[in-house]
Amino acid sequence: MKIRGTTKIMGVIGDPIAQAKTPEAILPHFDRLGTDMVCIPLHVAANSLEKAWRGFEVTRNLVGLGITLPYKQAAAGLCDTLDPVAERVGAVNVVRRERDGSFRGYQFDGRGFCSGLLQAGHDLEGRDCLMIGAGGAAMAVACALMEHGVNSLTIANRTPAKAAEVAELANRVTGRRAAKAGPATPAAGQIVINATSLGMNADDPLPLDLGTIDDSMLVAELVAEPERTRLMIAARDRGAAIHSGMHMIRAQVGLIAEHLAEIHG
């Protein structure tokens, strides 16, 4: 890979950012598409997003941004426009500079998560799910799970009102009534999804009581770094099937690269 004066930049912003997997995962897709483009992590400190955003807008060779924790909802409010999926979930994970120079927000998290499950051989239609977390990625995943025909979706969060808000959004967007707020207590046969940031650090508390996990369940992460979180290792030891957050990353980076290349390739 050569960096030239003509090279275009996709940034990935977050706080922290050391866990970001997109920069490494997307580069082969830029190469596959023949683009003169790189992806770099940008550590935007807490409470500095608006200041950083003004810099992004005037950096003319910055063609897009990947958005990770904790900025998925805040970035949606700074975009000039949102695509319909991002608008309905109120969060973005990709921003593209459009042909007119404006920033438009997009949402690939839900599509990437469900595609990753399907590619790994885990059917979604008719399944019962428990998702822990109610942030921007969780909103997108909730809607995508409902659209893929899950039988039920229980959303747990340390702030119950936030879980109820995400459940209502998923019901409203999909025209179904399969989502509800509830406790972080898995039931037999469920897909159990950790949509919190717990697991990125070795000393993070677990998002649920391990004693509730059994071998009838699939435990899935949105956390991609580390690729095997403490929750996944413990769930595997209890006989559960496990699914890394890296599946979501791998499923969506090709789509994101093609999305940027449509205009900037």
Comma- or semicolon-separated keywords:
single chain; 265 residues; alpha/beta; Rossmann fold; 2 domains; six-stranded mixed β-sheet; globular
Number of strands: 12
Instruction: Summarize the biggest pleated sheet.
Output: 6 strands, mixed
What portion of residues is helical? 25-40%
User: What portion of residues belong to β-strands?
Assistant: 15-25%
Distance between the termini: 16 Å
Instruction: Determine the number of helices (DSSP H or I, runs of at least 4 residues).
Output: 9
Which spans of ≥5 residues are poorly predicted at pLDDT below 50? Answer: none
| H-E string | EHEHEHEHEEHEHEHEEEHEH
- In the CATH hierarchy, what is the class of the largest domain? Alpha Beta
CATH architecture label name of the largest domain: 3-Layer(aba) Sandwich
Overall shape? globular
Number of discrete domains: 2
State the secondary-structure class. alpha/beta
Radius of gyration based on Cα positions:
18 Å
CATH topology description of the largest domain: Rossmann fold
In CATH, the homologous superfamily of the largest domain goes by the name: NAD(P)-binding Rossmann-like Domain
Mean pLDDT: 96
Spatial arrangement of strands, main beta sheet: 2-1-3-5-6-4
Pathway: Metabolic intermediate biosynthesis; chorismate biosynthesis; chorismate from D-erythrose 4-phosphate and phosphoenolpyruvate: step 4/7
InterPro entries: Shikimate_DH-bd_N, Shikimate_DH_fam, Shikm_DH/Glu-tRNA_Rdtase
Keywords: Amino-acid biosynthesis, Aromatic amino acid biosynthesis, NADP
Pfam families: Shikimate_DH (PF01488), Shikimate_dh_N (PF08501)
